[in-house]
Amino acid sequence: MDKILGGIYVGSVVPIMTHVPLKVEYHVSHILSCMKFDKIPEYLVKKGYTLKNIDLNDDSLYFDDIVDLIKYVNEANEFIDHAIFPNEENYNPLEVNFKGIKQKSAIFIHSFKGSNRACFYVICYLMYRFGFNLKQATYAVDRKMINNKMELSDNVLEQLELFQAMGGRFFDANNSEYKQWKLTKCNEIDPSGQLSREMIAKDNNMFEEEESASSDKVEIDEKDLQVLRCKKCRQNLAKSSSFINHEPPAKTSKESHFFKRGGISGNRIVGVEKSQDMCTHYFVEPLNWMKEKLLTEELLEGKFLCPGCEAKVGAFNWKGSRCSCGKWMNPGIHLQASKVDKVDVIKKQLAIGVDRRE
């Protein structure tokens, strides 16, 4: 095990399984376990340690390489806070600064190997409590890993970048980038869309309540908020906050070209078209009025009809689809720009999926 900062230690499960007297040797009072235990070692309870087990294998929907660590960040940070800074009146890092305050106890954060998942939570804590950016926090941990080498997986690195994009302080389950990351990961494992359907059916956060077709009107006061409306009946379909933004590929890249294939094998390139300058699709998060189509009809791809007039307004493809700019989006859930109007909404009442025809 290695001492990272003050009373924060990180390591593998070995000190736990070999009954190292952590309290006597390292003044450890709290243990954060980032792995699945069939049964918490009884001696830890008898010795008076305060324990928290983040059961990272508790969700059968996720394979090991896409396990969702970030959703436990807030509770992990709170546990670490109370371990090394007990009895503080306010723990909000946006309101109080603990730099210079002596840490009163120690915590041991471990995973099975101690080189990946445990490091993830330590890095997130340094960002949350001390305002480090991702590069600073990662370096602070890596430089102190003497007995064990830090080896962050691609999955962990992606989630660290997500946490930084959220501001590096608190995890937000409603963050659009997080939702898109979950869908993309599921589709990498199961391109049929079945895993994605199971995930969004289980996770209510994948659909924003205020966009429910049966929801009450929501008061909006945002200068930059826009809404997509059906061209035919003016039904509100999506808010700009639900857009999945993307950067068009460089004009010189292969991705910005559409290749037409033919010949006997169907693989010979017989034509090339450049991508369009303007995107003709609005890629969005799964919206509540889409729920029945996405969940009850087990289709790989399909069309979206306006809930107001049943005109075709978009489509989905669980395997992904390309925007007119050439960018590949996975999954491809979109509204067609030619079928909707984008309208600025300022200090107006907005209800997505509720009939607004006059």
From TrEMBL:
GO MF term set: protein tyrosine phosphatase activity; protein tyrosine/serine/threonine phosphatase activity
Keyword Cell wall biogenesis/degradation: no
Top-level EC class: hydrolase
Domain Tyrosine-protein phosphatase positions: 1-166
Annotated SUPFAM superfamilies: (Phosphotyrosine protein) phosphatases II (SSF52799)
Keyword Phosphoprotein: no
Domain of life assignment: Eukaryota
InterPro entries with a match to the protein in the record: DUSP12, Prot-tyrosine_phosphatase-like, TYR_PHOSPHATASE_DUAL_dom
Keyword terms, alphabetized: Hydrolase, Protein phosphatase
EC number, as in UniProt: 3.1.3.48
GO cellular component: nucleus
Family in the record: Belongs to the protein-tyrosine phosphatase family. Non-receptor class dual specificity subfamily.
Protein name per UniProt: protein-tyrosine-phosphatase
